Amino acid sequence: MAKVSRAAFRDLAQGFGLLSDPTRLGVLTLLAKGPKNVTALCKALGLKQPAVSHHLGLLRMGRLLNSTRQGKCVLYSTDKANLKALASALANLMPK
After folding, report:
1. pLDDT digits over 7-61, tens only?
2. What secondary structure, in 3-state letters, does the chain show?
3. Backbone conformation region of residue 89, classed left if phi is above 0, alpha if psi is from -120 to 50, else beta
C-alpha cells in the first residue's frame, strides 16, 4: 500500500469540511447544473449577497470552484477534478 502524506490527508479533510455546510452544498448542487453568477445563486438559495459571496470565497479557496470574469459579471462553476478527487477518496474508504 502506498504511503499517503499528511498534507494529502489535510487537503481531503479541508475539502470534506467545506462540504459539511448546507449552504455550500446548495451552492455546489446549483453549480453542478451549470455556471451561475452570485445574483442567480442568491435568488435560488434565498440568501443575501454577502452570505453567498462568503461561501463562494471559501469554496474557491478550497479549490472546489472556479470563477471566470465576463465583463462586470463573475461566473462560478464547479472544479470537477477536485470534486472527483474527493469522491474518489470517499469511495476508497468503503470496504471492498
Report:
1. 878 888 888 899 999 999 999 999 999 999 999 999 999 999 999 999 999 999 9
2. CCCCCHHHHHHHHHHHHHCCCHHHHHHHHHHCCCCECHHHHHHHHCCCHHHHHHHHHHHHHCCCEEEEEECCEEEEEECHHHHHHHHHHHHHCCCC
3. alpha
- pTM score, two decimals? 0.86
The C-alpha atoms of residue 69 and residue 77 are separated, in whole angstroms, by 12
